[in-house]
Amino acid sequence: MESIALHILGCGSALPTVEHWPTSQALVVRGKVFLIDCGEGCQLMLRKQRISFSRIVALFVSHLHGDHLFGLPGLLGTLALLGRTGTLKIYGPQGIAEFVDFIQSHFMSYTDAYPIEVYEHSTTESQTVFEDPSLKVSTLPLVHRIPTAGYLFEEKCAALHLDKAATDFYKIPLADYPEILLGAPYALPDGRVIPNSHLTRKGRTPRKYAFCTDTKYNPQLSSLVKGVDLLYHESTYLEVDRERAESHFHSTAAEAAKIAQEAGAKRLLLGHYSSRYSDTSLFLKEAQAIFPNTLASYEGMTLEL
Predict the structure, then answer these.
(1) Would residue 190 show up in a list of annotated catalytic residues for this protein?
(2) Is the pLDDT confidence value at 103 over 70?
(3) Contact at 8 Å (CB) between 68 and 53?
(4) Digit-coded pLDDT (tens) for 113-166
(5) CA-CA to 213 of 20 to 30 Å: which in 100, 111, 200, 265?
């Protein structure tokens, strides 16, 4: 099975600490790198985790708060200095195009330009924003102080695979393979009909990763991330500070665990810790009391899906 790996580049919140960088992640799918948010320190952590800048395909920005995109000017400039020629695709809410245009016009005019395509999307409804042969990415509406969206990354897998020994046995021509892979039976010249189940085997279940940062507790989110292999859900505060969490449009570790439980997620990953706490084990303890299969993110962490 081909690798899908999530790399945590930063998992802190807005105020800087000596323990954490602001939010940024890299999802590596079959060698292609998809960046998720771009807080300060993103480039340094990419280097430390030996993730190739040249393999970055696209960047998905959740919202326009500085701790989620102030690393973008430096990253775009570095890609130019490295001689990038391929198109970089950037997705985000309304306003991201203006921000990228400002970076290009003020900080990149002296570099060799490479194509940047910026796509703005809704933050109030789920929609597919990216699709290639290996991956589909959809938005997840979140509830924050400004328009914010999470992202659902879904691996694309073939529903059926040919049983080559069976197709060779029945001497089935290559031209008939596409219909068989769509689920059709096969009629032999002598009139016998071979069931599709005798000619194919089922493909594996596609892996799914959901990124949900900067949002207050929203029970409706659980239906959009049903059954994901890994759910990253912000846990800025602990339950003792739930009122603060609600007034700042953030979630507690316990609320993140409730979403994971309601969604039937396989694993929950916490992050976006407030600088008021120095011990992340408190988040883990609170969440695991509700959803045992919980992990606490940290810079340099890598998780295989």
Answers:
(1) no
(2) yes
(3) no
(4) 799 999 999 999 999 999 998 999 999 999 999 999 999 999 998 778 888 998
(5) 100
Q: From the candidates 67, 101, 132, 176, which is the catalytic residue?
A: 67
Taking the complete model, does pTM exceed 0.85, yes or no? yes
d(CA 11, CA 20): 6
Please tell me the predicted confidence (pLDDT) of residue 228. Answer: 98
**Cβ atoms of residues 35 and 49 within 8 Å:** no
Q: What is the mean pLDDT of the chain?
A: 94
CA 56 to chain centre: 14
Q: Measured between alpha carbons, how far is residue 34 from residues 54, 130, 142, 249, 268 in Å?
A: 11, 11, 20, 27, 20
What's the rounded mean pLDDT across residues 41-60?
A: 97
Write the DSSP assignment of 178-245 as a string of letters: HHHHTT--EE-TTS-EE-GGGTEEEPPPPPEEEEE-S----TTHHHHTTT-SEEEEE--B-GGGHHHH
d(CA 205, CA 191): 34
Please give the Cα distance from 116 to 54 (Å, whole number).
Answer: 14
Using CA atoms of 136, 137, 141, 146 in order, give the dihedral in degrees to the nearest 10. Answer: -170
